[in-house]
Amino acid sequence: MFEELRKLDVRPAPFSVYTAQQLWDDDHISRQMLAMHLDPDVEPASRRSAFIDTSVEWIVRHFDVGPGTRIADFGCGPGLYTTPFAQRGAEVTGIDWSRRSIAHARKTAERSRLKIDYTLTNYLTYESDKRFDLATLIYCDYCALSPTQRQHFLHVIRQHLAPGGRLLFDVFSQTAFASHQETATFGLNFMNHFWSKYEYIGFQRTWRYEAESVALDLYAIVTEEQVRLIYNWLQYFSLESIRSELMENGFTVVEQFADVTGQDYTSEATEIAIVAEAN
To answer: Which of 179, 136, 173 lies closest to 271, judged by CA?
Structure first.
């Protein structure tokens, strides 16, 4: 236990440890994540419902979504975007690796009599004969991926976009990075029993990597039986750096916004929404 806790005071190399799947495989944590997704007034898992409604309406207008539009929502969660897209008549595919979220999304589609193709898989390895007019990755999921994983993701998108198809996604900006400070905190049943239904002591250590524009929230969850470490990485981008990364992977940025509601981009924005095309 001592050796595990000591890791809280050792700054790991960026993206050197990856534990994200624990959030989706663990029965208790995945239940908590789904509850956060579905709470209209909280943002740790999904944005608030009012933002999502505005975002959907903008995407529908901006990309002329309607009957026959082929859309893939990568990291679709419980269907917060796929459901309204399908209600507009689009041919919708949702991809996510959370069994609990996909099960909820499928029940919602069945209850609403919507034909949505949900695929339970890691979207970094997604394979299909389908080709899409629009692919989305929303709520800055791209930032949680390592550089290698981002390359894999962009390769998957290139393989699945139809001619003229576009990718819409958002990232955290350098303005957001400037406000992300190094901290250390702990508490009994830290984050209101988010990590376990049993008693535990939770520790959180936040690291900043200035040269790489990366932040790490490292959690240690200590129970009587074990210590679990969870590494939550986030990459931050400037408009120039995300343009360069996309260009290196065969994409061209055709539009940029402050967020996925279509607000005008400014250098003070905490997010950058990107519309890109494969070269």
So the answer is: 173
